[in-house]
Amino acid sequence: MKHMICNSGKFLLFEQLWMQVSFNGIFIIGFLSILQFNWIIAVSYLILFPFIGILYFIMHLWLCPRCPHIKDHSACVQLPPFLTQRIYKKGVNGPLSRSRKAGFFIVLYGILVVPVYWVVQTNYLWIPFWFLGTMHYGAYFVWFCKRCLNVACPQNLNFKLKYANKPSC
Fold first, then answer.
1. pLDDT level of residue 103 (50, 70, 90 thresholds)
2. Distance between CA atoms of 158 and 147, rounded to whole angstroms?
3. Using a CB cutoff of 8 Å and minimum separation of 24, what contacts does 123-131 make?
4. What pTM value is reported for the model?
5. What is the enclosing helix (H) or strand (E) of 123?
6. Nearest to 149 by CA among 65, 68, 62
7. N or C: which end of the chain has fewer CB within 10 A?
């Protein structure tokens, strides 16, 4: 199956569901695992990672404003495009600074890493947590990052695009 972004600028519904279900599943299981042991840390995790980290920094300021998937094709693999278009700041261009790249990795992987201490203490949540984590982050490296059009993304593995400034479709 050919990646849909190459043909019409849109992601397949399957691709969107894969990423959204797996990401939200990781977050919900992580939150519920922490909540069983400490509600203060659980609420902090809830506020810091998805709301401040993902929605404000990554989607509003850092990555989505530079993404041609959303700007040129009205396509987003992480959220429904109409939500992403309301969140991101218009008119942001250029590469990310080193500190923003570091922040990107802290937020993106913190959602998976932070709850590990509590997830492994549960007898039943660690299996779906790691399954969804592998499903989500594996899809980045095996499928999405190799076909990414966002040259500002620190995870972009589309070397033909990154170094030739043309899509590899």
1. confident
2. 5
3. 125/29, 125/32, 125/33, 128/25, 128/29, 129/25, 129/26, 129/29, 129/30, 129/33
4. 0.80
5. none
6. 68
7. N
Query: Any residues with CB less than 8 A from the CB of 140 and at least 6 apart, and which?
Result: 155
DSSP 93: -
The C-alpha atoms of residue 21 and residue 9 are separated, in whole angstroms, by 21
Q: pLDDT (tens digit, 9 = 90+) per residue, 2-42?
A: 444 444 457 888 988 898 899 889 999 999 999 999 999 99
Cβ-in-10-Å burial (0-12, 13-18, 19+) of 108 comes to buried
How far is the C-alpha of 156 from the C-alpha of 75, rounded, in Å?
17
Most distant CA pair in the chain, distance:
50
